[in-house]
Amino acid sequence: MRRELPTGSTPNVETRFLGRVLVLLWWLLGFSPGAHAGGGSLEIRGGYFWDPTTARFFYPHGVAYQSWNPPVGANQSLEQVGSDLLEFKKMHANSVRAEMVWNVVESKRGQFDWSKPDFLVQQAEALGLKLFILIGFQYAPDWFPDEWKALNSENTRSFVLNYEHPEARGAFSNYIAQVTARYRHSRAIGGWILGNEYAYFDLWEPQRRYLGYDSYSLASYRNFLRRTYAGDLARANATWGTEYPSFDEVPMPRTYPADRHQPLFHDLIQWRKRSIGEYVALGTQAARGLTPIICSPTP
Hints:
Layout: H1 13-27, E1 43-45, E2 48-51, E3 56-57, E4 62-64, E5 68-69, E6 74-75, H2 78-90, E7 95-99, H3 102-105, H4 115-127, E8 130-134, E9 149-151, E10 157-161, H5 166-183, E11 189-193, H6 215-228, H7 233-240, H8 263-287
Parallel strand pairs: 4-7, 7-8, 8-11
Antiparallel strand pairs: 1-2, 2-3, 5-6, 9-10
Helix pairs in contact: 2-4, 5-8, 6-8
């Protein structure tokens, strides 16, 4: 039998690890302790999930579920989704990690089909399940222009979007704003997941060619180097063992160093981390309602 804490008590050591991992999902949204999204959504109290509807700490235990994600072969009917959620409830799950896949919900730019997400949320509400929904994606929907997609090391376009392209960033932020605005007050929403397996390569491509060799990324990379070395090109060259005449002529390495030691490649990795972090931060602002919604949600 599962042991429950008295109302208002502090979780013991055995429960802390899972709590801390899942709290990261919430902190991605930038909520401070005690923040409350309304509608029965989870809060953060003392670094852990707190359910205001039950006045108890909330310990997520449930199922990672793929409902409508055609690239991985998941395309359940509404009837199947309803049946699956009911079975999860019978298993005493209280949470479901699911996705609202960008390409499924916004199949054309600015045109949203909410039938499947609405059904998922309504069923979870009826069963008393909390949903942790992935809405941050690195794979471009089908309607993305090629120039919004990442350029790989062989100068061909990837399915991964360009993290630095302003239009790609705007479309990403808008999608997150649309979804979170629609379901912000649902008591079924436990948290939003704003990213999953982000990388500067395509996880599905066997060659794993590096990405980010377009003009937007190159400019961002060089500006990052300037800031990293405080504009001191001599110090940068001394670190890299190079003699570049200006930061504007520093190339972006295209291959992993054979000896695993190349200071310039290390700086490139740090830029990639920063680039993805800034991309996710825009999604955070959108989820909090700080980014204007570009397209009005369809009924």
